[in-house]
Design a protein that fits this description.
The chain contains 15 helices and nine strands. It is an alpha/beta fold and about 375 residues long. Strand 1 and strand 2 form a beta hairpin.
Length: about 375
């Protein structure tokens, strides 16, 4: 199978020649594993990651100047501003930063209206189309992240102010959500028109045990916006797959996600949700990407426990017949032993089957994890 054929089979709960797998790293982890392997792990391991390019701004585009929203931080080497105008103050701990929200002190609705939100509705799709063609020509699948809605909204407004806006001044929250929804919709529609196999969506809306707010509130303000994005994409490509990310326990909204067109759930954190229980509940309505804990197995397990975790999960979820992509439930951090990363991919290699007999189900065939 090509990687594209394998990805599409996985999403459709069809037999695969091997269980698709992938991993991402923070830079410190990537360097540590590279030192152990003698080469970059991103190229060393044969992964099923897909590829794509997003929309690009028109020639001559000048991004908004957000400096006026961060007068106390400008000029600091440990401070940066992202494309949405949110400030990031580094405290020297890997990729983690302190968010400095530009609208955190807003007291009038007019301040929201005056804010220069990025607008991607007129951006260009030439690179996006070329990337899809290149991916397909190489036998890979094309996918693209279309952006956050809720996460971008609270980052610009401030976490506590945004959560307070939801019950006390809903029009403020919805105004910001709509601005980011429009951008996600523009990217999703362009990707669908360009023949992408999958659009990646999502927002972190859950803690370890439950949702960050009542599920009905999510259904009122977040669900209809993601539904709009997905429906618009499917008008142009009815078969496009939709990947949704949220850390934590999203059990309360699983049926809602399927209802609006989500086909792949990430990361299905085993510390928060039992993948086998979720599979029993959802059946073949929802494929999984993830399931190998970055709060448990990757940092604290052994190569032996990694192997048993991977193989037992794949067996429990009938991974030979699709529905499972194995990956860490988040990017790998520097404390993860390189031996556990190698053990993960070696265990994944055991979950491969000969293509001579597509009905073979009597055991895996080992093969090397290097490309």
């Amino acid at each position: 199978m090509t990687k594209r054929e394998r990805f599409l089979a996985f999403t459709q709960f069809a037999p695969v020649d091997r269980v698709p797998r992938r991993a991402g790293y923070v830079e410190g982890a990537r360097q540590r594993v590279a030192t152990y392997l003698g080469e970059d792990p991103v190229t060393h391991f044969d992964m099923d990651g897909g590829r794509g390019e997003s929309l690009r701004p028109p020639d001559g585009y000048r991004p908004p100047d957000y400096a006026a929203y961060h007068p106390d931080y400008m000029g600091r080497e440990d401070f940066s501003i992202d494309e949405n105008g949110c400030g990031h103050l580094s405290h020297g701990f890997h990729h983690f930063t302190e968010y400095i929200s530009p609208l955190r002190d807003a007291v009038r609705f007019e301040e929201l209206e005056a804010y220069p939100f990025p607008d991607k509705t007129n951006w260009l799709d030439d690179r996006m189309r070329a990337a899809a063609e290149e991916a397909h020509a190489a036998g890979d699948y094309a996918w693209i992240f279309v952006g956050h809605i809720y996460e971008n909204a609270w980052q610009v407004r401030g976490y506590e102010p945004f959560l307070m806006d939801l019950p006390t001044q809903r029009d403020w929250a919805e105004y910001i959500l709509d601005r980011f929804c429009a951008n996600s919709l523009a990217v999703a529609v362009a990707a669908a028109k360009a023949g992408y196999d999958c659009i990646a969506t999502g927002d972190d809306v859950a803690h370890q045990q439950s949702m960050m707010f009542p599920p009905d509130l999510w259904r009122e303000v977040m669900k209809p916006r993601w539904a709009r994005v997905i429906a618009a994409a499917r008008e142009h490509n009815p078969d496009i797959q939709v990947w949704y990310h949220s850390d934590g326990n999203v059990g309360d909204i699983l049926d809602d996600l399927v209802e609006i067109g989500i086909t792949i759930l990430n990361p299905v954190q085993p510390e928060c949700m039992d993948p086998t229980a979720v599979r029993k509940q959802m059946g073949k309505r929802l494929a999984f990407d993830g399931c190998i804990g970055t709060q448990s197995t990757f940092p604290f397990g052994t190569p032996e426990s990694m192997r048993s975790t991977v193989l037992e999960l794949a067996d429990a979820l009938d991974a030979r017949n699709g529905g499972l992509m194995l990956s860490p439930t988040h990017v790998l951090e520097p404390e993860v032993p390189p031996e556990n990363v190698v053990a993960f991919f070696e265990a994944c290699d055991e979950l491969s089957w000969t293509q001579d007999d597509p009905n073979q189900t009597d055991g895996p065939q080992t093969r090397r994890s290097t490309g």
